[in-house]
Amino acid sequence: MNLSLAFEPLVSWPLLGLVLAPLLLLALVGLWFRQRGAIFRFAALLALAAALLNPVLLDEEREALKSVVAVVVDRSQSQDIGERTKQTDEALAGLQQRLGRFKQFDVRVVEAGKSEAAEERTETRLFGALESAFRDVPPSRIGGAIMITDGEVHDAPGGTPDFNAPLHALITGNDQEKDRRIRFENAPRFGLVGKPLEMTYRVIGTNNEAGSVDVRVSVNGEQVSVERATIGQAMPLQVTIPGAGRNIVELAIDPEPDELTDTNNRAIALIDGIRENLRVLLVSGEPHAGERTWRNLLKSDASVDLVHFTILRPPEKQDGTPINELSLIAFPTRELFVEKIKDFDLIIFDRYQHRDVLPILYYDYIAEYVEKGGALLIAAGPEYAGESSIARTPLMSALPAMPTGEVVDKAFYPRLTELGQRHPVTRGLDGSATEPPHWSRWFRTIGVENPEGEAVMKGADNRPLLLLDRKGEGRVGMFLSDQGWLWARGFEGGGPHVQLYRRIAHWLMKEPELEEERLTADGRGMMLEIRRQTMSDDPGPAQIITPSGKAMTVKLERAEPGVFLGSIETSEIGLYQVGNGDLKALAHVGPVNAPEFTDVVSTENRLKAPAEATGGSVRRLAQSSTLGNLTGGVTLPSVVPVRSTGAAAGNDWIGLRTTDDSVLKAVSRVPLFGGFLGLGLLLLALGSMWYREGR
Q1: Is the pLDDT of residue 676 over 60?
Q2: pLDDT single digits (tens) 114-159
Q3: Going edge to edge, which strands form the sheet with 278-284?
Q4: Is 463 in the same domain as 526?
Q5: Taking Cα atoms as reference points, which of 95, 87, 257, 77 lies closest to residue 174?
Q6: Radius of gyration (C-alpha) of the chain in whole angstroms
Q7: What pLDDT, on a 0 to 100 scale, did the predictor assign at position 624?
């Protein structure tokens, strides 16, 4: 029962004051001068005032509200270590049983750390989950919070949390845990291909562990060295980036006995390899309409250092002048083709034919350069079919096709062969999807016999137009027409000469993206995506090994000619190994070196400051104690409801605050000066006054 008195005046308050104020003044004057009947007049005035004020007795029926208590359960991956999951489940069950005894508590259980989003799995963010649990609760109704966690919380505030209620933390694990981990201190995002890259790393042990340990260094899955590292000190590391694009540098140490987990015994760095400027030697033969096409393309690429020589004197012009007197500067043949030939990434002969400019022995040097990993491109014209063809030199061993001596002058549309539709150099070439192709015609093809390698484009009468071949460790490309300049000049709408020429050059220089047989994998969020480039009809499924060692397969579906894709949703953060046939690939799913695994030793330190600031406590679940209640192998404190001003923690108990808030359900009104009772009292007072005044 909640009784209260309220006034509901019959007239407005100003009017009420205007009426009662003079009467009250007269009554007080009478009392002051002790006039006869002054007391009766004052009593009559009070009765009149009470009638006008209309007092009402209110009886409110209220329902007490419950205090909201949040139980935040840490379900992050570090909680899967050892007995922590079991301890967490037992503690949660015990708390729910204890809290269920108190009707004044509204218990909300919130599980954090199991989000599907990769960015939310990298850290244990319990205070963010706590804020969400209390978002619709007024501050006066917050009874407190209990966190069941290993203590590795990455969003813990340094001071008091945003709610004024006790925060208690129950820590899983035990205080005897040990773990050794490795991490990168300094890892650049980019590195030059083939050049040393300076990095630093650190091995960290538990409880200021000292000593040294072997560190295995791997680049793209292949071990390159074993370093000796001093525990606790920053160690230098030098690695060589093997290729352009994404490279994975991995450090690994052996687990020690009784170590919590070996998940953080590995650290990786993702480094994008960048090539230094590519060095290209372009040698142009006799002047022709498309002579500058290759030059303009290569000069427009800022990543290419071009050395270009042009033979301006046609062979039929013979006037007896020595060839070494025909140029403004001497052609440095020995320097280019003997001393520094290995420095070039690509050599291009554009309509070049054998002359006395290059000694015959130098062609053998060029063939050897290709065999040992160099790249050669032949842009052939009619001279390739003539008597002075470079096919009649020692360079013939490096060429993919010998000329027949035939030059076919016939209009045709360059078309992709069946192999060309799959080959990364010509696959998806702009304009190739229509028939005829959406580009201009060419008018000359050089006849060849017994072509080797892969014919990815065909010309008139289905003759080979573009050949790509491997010779030893190097590569050779051959264009059997000199009509590509028609595309560059926009004849009949032109064609994709920049796209095609650039792909050819980069394939010859072994760009990974243009490999015919290539397997790549990448992590996007918690999704592992696999891409397989192949010239075959079906590469088969991909085999996957997860960071924990589990094996699985993923079916690869054809996305376009020569490209097969597959994907799988993963639950583990770490390095995945992907295989298909003889090809291997590595991919890291989730954030690199996520904080969730940086330090996995359970701790009370991170939550101690916010807990003590709110009057709460931090205690371990696995401690041996005779004071608490032992449930399922964990020691749980008793739960005690406390007032807002009382202590909220003790040696064997934790306190949760109760609220004074309530909800009004109904109100009973009883007028005190209404009806016949009020009328009778008013008449009695006035009659008494009249009687006394009449005597």
Answers
A1: no
A2: 765 544 556 788 888 888 888 888 888 888 899 999 888 887 887 6
A3: 304-310, 278-284, 346-350, 375-379, 474-479, 464-471, 454-458, 415-416
A4: no
A5: 87
A6: 45
A7: 43
Among residues 68, 307, 149, 173, which one has the least CA distance to residue 634?
173
How many Cβ atoms sit within 10 Å of the Cβ of residue 210?
9
489 lies in the same domain as 362? yes
- Both structure tokens of 557: 């579906």
pLDDT of amino acid 401: 93
- Position 289 scores a pLDDT of 74
Number of neighbouring beta carbons within 10 Å of residue 234: 12
The answer to whether residues 291 and 262 belong to one domain is no
User: Contact at 8 Å (CB) between 431 and 415?
Assistant: no
3-state secondary structure of 312: coil
Per-residue confidence (pLDDT) for residue 285, from 0 to 100: 80
Q: Which pLDDT does position 238 carry in this prediction?
A: 93
Same domain for 335 and 462, yes or no, is yes
What angle (nearest 5°) sits at the alpha carbon of residue 435, between those of residues 431 and 440? 55
pLDDT score of 626 more than 60: no
491 and 451 both lie in a single domain: yes
Looking at residue 253, which CATH number applies to its domain?
A: 2.60.40.10
Beta strand residue intervals within 241-392, DSSP E: 245-252, 266-274, 278-284, 304-310, 346-350, 375-379
* Strand duo 617-620 + 167-171: pairing: parallel
Q: Which of 675, 623, 679 is nearest to 651 (CA)?
A: 623
User: What's the pLDDT tens digit per position in 548-578?
Assistant: 778 999 999 999 999 999 999 888 877 888 9
Q: What is the mean pLDDT of the chain?
A: 82
Average pLDDT over residues 577-606: 80
How many residues are there in the chain?
695
Alpha-carbon distance of 171 to 623, in angstroms, equals: 10
Question: Per residue in 415-458, pLDDT tens?
Answer: 999 999 999 999 999 999 898 999 999 999 999 998 999 999 99
Check if the beta carbon of residue 94 is closer than 8 Å to that of residue 634. Answer: yes
Q: Is residue 303 part of a domain?
A: yes
Do 331 and 458 share a domain, yes or no? yes
Compute CA distances 94 → 91, 99, 405, whole Å.
5, 9, 92
Q: Three-state SS across 352-388?
A: CCCCCCCCHHHHHHHHHHHHCCCEEEEECCHHHHCCC
Q: Residue 348: name the closest of 392, 406, 409, 390 by CA.
A: 390
Average pLDDT for residues 584-606, to the nearest whole number? Answer: 77
* Sequence-ordered alpha helix ranges (H) in 452-573: 485-488, 497-508
Judge whether 160 lies within some domain.
no
Cβ–Cβ under 8 Å, residues 357 and 333: yes
Same domain, 575 and 471: no
Which range, of 233-237, 339-343, 486-490, averages the lowest pLDDT?
339-343
Q: Where are the beta strands (DSSP E) in 142-296?
A: 142-149, 167-171, 181-186, 190-192, 196-204, 212-219, 222-230, 234-240, 245-252, 266-274, 278-284
Q: How many domains are contained in the chain?
A: 4
Q: Quick one: three-class SS letters along 445-486?
A: EEEEECCCCEEEEECHHHCEEEEEEEECCEEEEEECCCCCHH
Flag whether 453 is in a domain: yes
* Residue 557 falls inside a structural domain: yes
> Which residue type does 692 have?
R
Q: 């709110």: which residue's tokens? A: 614
